[in-house]
Amino acid sequence: MGEMSMGAAVVCVGAAVWLMGGRQCGARRARLLLAGSGVVGSGLPSWERVVGELRRLRGRLRAEWWAFGAGLVLAVVGASVIPLVVGAAGVPVLRRVRLAREARRVREKLGDAVIGLCGALAGEVRSGRQPGEALLRAARDSGGLGDAQGAVVAAARFGGDVPGALMAAARQQGAEGLSGLSACWRVAVDQGAGLAAGLDRLDAALRAQRDQRSDLRAQLAGARATAVMLAALPVLGLLLGTAMGADPLHVLLHTGAGLGCLVIGGLLEAAGMWWAARIVRRAEAA
């Protein structure tokens, strides 16, 4: 226990020294060489500089690496390598969760851009512009075509297959509404129907669908919060046991019964979180 604590302290001191002085040694050396008769500081970084370095370090570290840090702290406190292994195993899981959340934000942003594109295109057509020119202006202002904007713009500018380009762009996650725009374009241009009226109906339908998803997500927020709270109860139990002097970390990490309880509890915790997430995903998909 003493050796692990001493090792962790040495690592922390080394990291602090590197943050405070390692990156600034070159700059200090240059100031010393070029200062001339000027007064040069002692070379010790100010607290503002230390705080800035720590903030930059936190910005570079993704959220999933805090699991590894928590495992390292628990490994030092509990004098066991098990929390470190669990924390390292949690890094890819949390990374997957973070990437899924970021992908969902990208899809929602693209979906909002598609709605804006439909509204802008309807306004341009209603103002008297030709469909091709109107699409060019609306795409430039809204950016609702995503990665396929170049192909769609080229098709509209040079008389290509605009509905086909829109259908190809609709394959992007979040841009499914472009398939409706492709259908409206095909009907309006090929059969002479009113494009603005069709775009208005498409815009209303996409907005209603977005509002329905937002309402459903708000209704499921309570279920998510309940699942997270239940998942955090074991941590609260460990804190209460430590406050009462029961030393639950020693029992869990250094006794056979404690290891068995830790494995079974961890499996049940993971199964419960997976089941709750599955229920929420099925509700959103429905």
TrEMBL record:
Residues 199-226 form a coiled coil. It is a multi-pass membrane protein. It holds the Pfam family T2SSF. One of its GO terms (cellular component) is plasma membrane. Keywords: Cell membrane, Coiled coil, Membrane, Transmembrane, Transmembrane helix. The chain crosses the membrane at residues 65-94, 227-246, 252-277. It comes from the Bacteria. InterPro entries: T2SS_GspF_dom. It is found in: Cell membrane. Residues 119-239 form the Type II secretion system protein GspF domain. This is Membrane protein. The lineage of its organism: Bacteria, Bacillati, Actinomycetota, Actinomycetes, Kitasatosporales.
